[in-house]
Design a protein that fits this description.
about 375 residues; alpha+beta; five-stranded antiparallel sheet; globular; disordered C terminus; binds adenosine-5'-triphosphate; binds magnesium ion
Length: about 375
Amino acid sequence: MEGSSRRKRSRVEMLSPNYKLGKTLGYGSFGEVKLAEHKLTGLHVAIKILNRHEMKKQGMEEKARREIKILKMLMHPHIIRLYEVIETSSDIFVVMEYAKCGELFEYILEKGRLEEDEARSFFQQTISGLEFCHRNMVVHRDLKPENLLLDSKHNVKIADFGLSNIMQDGHFLKTNCGSYNYAAPEVLARKLYAGPEVDIWSCGVILYALLCGSLPFDDESIPNLLRKIKGGIYSIPRYLSPGATDMISKMLMVDPMRRMNMPEIRQHPWFQAHLPRYLAVPLPDTMQYAKKEVVKLGFDGKQLTESIICRMQNEASVAYHLLLDHQFRDSNGYLGAEIQETTVCLSFPCLLYRGKNVVDILIYVGK
Ligand code: ATP
Ligand code: MG
């Protein structure tokens, strides 16, 4: 007891002077996720506390490291932002954007099936975040409404990249992961898969859950559940519109080669309806663009990637961040125009987006 309160005290000391810890938001595999206040700005963040001892015991250090590495790379209005990582001998603190309204899962439980327009809006946001992951060679592999969080304006924020993988061209993955109900048939059959198509299957299941308030594949017996998924056995309620029905059936195609891909989802009339302007054009591949430009300046691409991931400050990484910020500003208001949430990036120079205006303020906090 005394040991645990001492541990808690040392945690608080470790996070001060920058953060004031608050209530527990949820429990992850290796520790709690806490609400915290960033003292300098008064803004709220979520801090995932990963206990090193627990992670080692479960042999899952790699999972946590992967999540951190991936979150560091991805900057998108519908992906949880990672602000900084604080490491101590006992814990790793992952400071993230706070999603005030919790899990989409809870929202569906509370409301039951959603109106098509509301479901479509969640779906459009999820797809745009996911498309961004795929363009940056990241597959999530554990998409489900528990891992889609909602901010105070009910914008979707994709979270929990613990099972994600960085795709390599020409390499196929063969890890069995994610929750059964959302897992693609080829994953369950332990076949090789390229990556993006398994996330698209999970999004099909999520879309079904949003529109119907239940799961397409469900059974108390695991063998029966697996049989249904592998056979693509599910029923679509009559109240769904023809557009939504078409979308779901094309995403839940058992054969991954025949399953809808990202461009096809984007072009589908049901997806296109009421599509907000900032989601109408896919985000230009800003990270790849910025990297290419830096390489053109004579820097080594591999070293640059390492510097970006490790947040090392050198000539190449500074040039990269400058180009990146410049690109975001020019990219037709993708992040600016219709994102109402105020997003402040801590510990890294970046833009402050507030309401309908993109305010050009460079903020340097922390290290
Ligand atoms: P599991 O493996 O059990 O899914 P995990 O270790 O991957 O857990 P997360 O899913 O990332 O942990 O977080 C656990 C819970 O904490 C989430 O389901 C959510 O309720 C809450 N949570 C996590 N991140 C945030 C956040 N940024 N804002 C608000 N709540 C959060
Ligand atoms: Mg989770």
